[in-house]
Amino acid sequence: MRRIGTLESQELARRFCDYLMTRSISATCDAESDEQDSAWNIWVRDERQIEEAKQELVDFRVDPQADRFQVEQEVKQIRQEKIAAEIARRKQAAENARRSNLDKSALGQPITAPLKQTGIPVTIAVIVLSVIASLTTNFGQPRGSRVPGKLTLEEKTYDALSFVNREDFLKSKGNSFASVETGQLWRFVTPMFLHGDEFHLLFNMVWIYFLGSVIEKLHGSAFLAIVLVVTQIGGMLLQVLLPSTAELQPIFQGTPLDFLAETMSGSPFAIGASGAVYGLFGFLWIRPKVDIGYPIHLVKTNVVLMLGWLVLCITPLIGDVANGAHIGGLLAGVGFGFAGKFKTR
User: Which domains, and CATH codes, for the chain?
Assistant: First the structure.
């Protein structure tokens, strides 16, 4: 910045600086001293514009009232445009910061968005309860007692946590809701803690940890608990309400899709947290699509893996899988994701 000269008053100095603004020359003015009749210095920021500014100052001194120096309206417009440009710049900077999260927050990478909490008690509780329940029930195959008519701990635990008590199911002649109708509503959720083997347990718990912990940190434990419960219920309901194999066989028999009579049949004895897992996945998959600023964005590899596994399980290649629970949980999770569009976090 360099001083290029002085003018007699503050009013003239400011008018001249305004004029320089219209010439795209950045300038400021200040008083030479604290005295009332002090002259005012003119300062130009850019060294490359010094000579041009000096010549303009010479012309201004000759005739400050010349038409070319009457720039009040033009200056006002320039200032308004600068303010608008600065507001737009700040908004764009904030948007760029939010968008950068999409590249930095793929599964397993740090989240730069503010977290609601750092602990993940609900995620840990689901994992611990699932491990305990799976081991206690011998992975869904409870061993009977050597004493006739006496139930083992494995059988009691399995009957208490599965969707329908086996005795209630038999007494009601196959009513899948026999236990629920007696008020045992917890059975909509508790089958998620039971698993059929070690791989089934490990697969579900890994996804519960990675997906659940992210949601719990961002939204809090209460929100995660709600998502888990609702998506598990959605998955369990669809699994139970699907037609049986006997009902589906006449539909698909003799067609290339005859395997669907087995893979898409319903059962009240489905176990596992797969419905909840697909619910969490569905939420994190859809939420960033309806909220561009959402700080979690699953990488395509994980999306393809989850959707590919969903489809593969429907084929006869995998075996006995609760596909209704997968699909029901996914649909419920997707619904949560879309619901986020209408609610500000």
Answer: 2-70 (3.30.70.2350), 111-342 (1.20.1540.10)
